[in-house]
Amino acid sequence: MSDRLDDLERRIDELRAGVRKAMRLRDGATARVLRAELRSAERSWDALVTGEQPKAKERPPRLVTVREQVHQGLRLLGAPAQPRLVVAVSDAFFGGTIRSNQLTSLRRDEERSFRSSPFGRPYYLCAALTDRLSPARGLLTLSGWPLERRVVGPLSPRVDFLTCAIAVAGHESDDEGAGRLLIRMARNIPGATDGTLGPPDPRRVIEAARAELDVHAERDTRDRAELAERAAAQLDDAARLFGAATLSTIKKEKAK
After folding, report:
1. What's the whole-number average pLDDT of the chain?
2. Residue 125 is inside which H or E element, if any?
3. CA 129, CA 145: separation in Å to the nearest integer?
4. What secondary structure does DSSP assign to 135-182, as a single string?
5. Which of the four pLDDT bands, split at 50, 70 and 90, describes residue 48?
6. Using CA atoms, how far apart are residues 177 and 90, in angstroms rounded to an integer?
7. Domain of life here (predicted)?
8. 2 pLDDT band (50/70/90 cuts)?
9. Which of 108, 123, 22 has the alpha carbon at shortest distance from 68?
């Protein structure tokens, strides 16, 4: 329980700082969203300390914006993820209301916002970066993550999938959607299921995923460190978050 309390307390501190910053910038919309999540985090902290289980009707209110729901899903996963996985996590664990097609232009909107007012928000939803330092197609990350977590090398898709599976398996939920999501993920991890049709044991999923991670982690960490070093040296602030322009992007912009 102490680890969960520590995580909640760190998140509460982050949210309070984010609210203060949003108020200084007179960004009322962001402040309202952050205050809603702050109240939810504080209720979770109270419930954990007292041991009380919140009633169904007392569940935290749904997040106001698509942006914040995506942010919450990515924070749980802890790794670059495809929109459909973020949507599934948001629905299964947070009562989310987002759909994949709502995320199509989200990263572009975030980039425009950053370029018009750099670092004006507490966080940005941004792109994972490929070995060419260009934006990885369909992979969302968070600006607060270190570069090493936002770049993707040859082994990163598998490493990130395993990381996400561990996060999903380790997050308690009675929602049927969470069970279905874990079943789908476990089927792609050797040894994670016992061959039956029922929900897999989360502990077994975690153990199997960690066993495979041990095989790939060292090489992937090295590849990502090299990519992160290049990105830090070659890219400006905006490109570190949203990727360097590719030749095809430049051609499209010239054609406009």
Report:
1. 85
2. strand 125-129
3. 13
4. EEEEEEEETTS-HHHHB--TTHHHHHHHHHHHHHHHS----HHHHHHH
5. confident
6. 10
7. Bacteria
8. low
9. 123
